[in-house]
Amino acid sequence: MTANDLQKEIQKDLEALLADRRYETPAGEKAAVQVFRQFVPKRASEEDDDPFPYIEVRIAGGRLPNQESPEKVQVFLIIGIYDDDHENNGMESVMEIIHVIKVHYEETPLLAGKFVCDTEESPIEWDLQEEESWPYFFGIMSLVFNIPAPRRVPVTNKKAQVLV
């Protein structure tokens, strides 16, 4: 299992988790949150609407502490909401999504039977955009997932050993 596999599973998990929730689009309709891996796709033309609402599932990095521990992969979730209401309350939708995801991974940290959201050693962190960008609103979450790490294979053939 790889970080790519983890990213795909998070994408599927978030799509299912948020499937019943609807948020405003730049076209003035209500739509489910789109979940993208790594980055939002490029628009085909300037006339295409921005893909709001969305979440980007970004693999930020990983570390393998040792041969006995799982690999730890840091994942950023970038949340983008469009809300052109003049009350300027789009952050409420961002906060709602953050809350739903946070509760989900706290209650059920096991993902696809193979990845674990590590909330004990690496707490879930989140932040909101500080600068004004109406009608676009953004938030970010940081999660760490444990994935099974590759294990060292014992060398049984002396010819296969590398001499230093």
Explain what you see.
It contains 2 helices and 9 strands. The protein has one domain: STM4215-like (2-Layer Sandwich). The two termini are 31 Å apart. With 164 residues, the chain is α+β, with helices and mostly antiparallel strands. A hairpin with a 5-residue loop joins strand 1 and strand 2. The strands form 2 sheets. Strands 3, 4, 5, 6, 7, 8 and 9 form a 7-stranded mixed beta sheet that branches.
List its traits.
single chain, 164 residues, alpha+beta, STM4215-like, 7-stranded mixed β-sheet, two-stranded antiparallel ribbon, 2 helices
Task: Give the topology, please.
Layout: H1 3-17, E1 23-24, E2 30-31, E3 34-37, E4 54-63, E5 71-82, H2 90-107, E6 110-111, E7 115-117, E8 125-128, E9 136-147
Parallel strand pairs: 3-4
Antiparallel strand pairs: 1-2, 4-5, 5-9, 6-7, 7-9, 8-9
Question: In a nutshell, what does this entry contain?
Answer:
The chain is 20% helix and 31% strand. With 164 residues, the protein is an alpha+beta fold.
The tally of helices reads 2
Task: Tell me the total number of β-strands.
Answer: 9
Q: Which strand-content bin applies to the residues?
A: 25-35%
Order of helices and strands: HEEEEEHEEEE
Please name the CATH topology.
STM4215-like
Radius of gyration: 19 Å
